Amino acid sequence: MTTSEAHRALDRHVRGFFSGHPVGTATLTAPVPDPRFADLIAMTAHYHCGPRHGHLLDVGHSLPVGEPWVPGSACDHILVSLPYLHGPDLEVCHLPGGHARLLWLLPVTSSEIAFRREHGTEALERRFDEAGIRPLDLHRAPVV
């Protein structure tokens, strides 16, 4: 996907949001500002509503980034999750004429995605809790 394709996908997604239709949208939490994070959100929007893909992402779904989400990180996938860091009040945003559902894009590793495919999302989230991961750690170690 080119940058212009990603930006067009994000534009379509944002226009849908502001047209008053219920739309799922995603948030990426990071400890530092980086333009690459906007590209990740655009890539996710393209994957979610792009003309050739049409994969409707929801909690527990994942997508490959194709490279570490930041240089030197082991995380090269995104897991769509509930916005645990921000609490349940962030998940549903009521708007005039509809609502938006905000989901969290959590950077994860290939091994964590393989574990999730075999054992399920809840089992992976338990591993995250047991390991006490810091989701904002750009270079956290895999839990599996």
Largest sheet: 5 strands, mixed
The amount of beta strand, in percent, is 15-25%
The amount of helix comes to 25-40%
The tally of helices reads: 4
| SSE arrangement, N to C | HEHEEEEHH
- Amino-to-carboxy terminus distance: 30 Å
Q: Overall pLDDT, averaged?
A: 78
Question: Unreliable runs, pLDDT <50, ≥5 residues?
Answer: 17-23
**Could you tell me the radius of gyration in angstroms?**
15 Å
Q: Say how many strands there are.
A: 5
Name the descriptors:
single chain, 144 residues, alpha+beta, five-stranded mixed beta sheet, 4 helices, 5 strands, 19% strand, globular
Q: What is this structure's SSE topology?
A:
Layout: H1 3-18, E1 23-27, H2 35-49, E2 62-64, E3 77-81, E4 92-95, E5 98-108, H3 110-119, H4 121-131
Parallel strand pairs: 1-5
Antiparallel strand pairs: 2-3, 3-5, 4-5
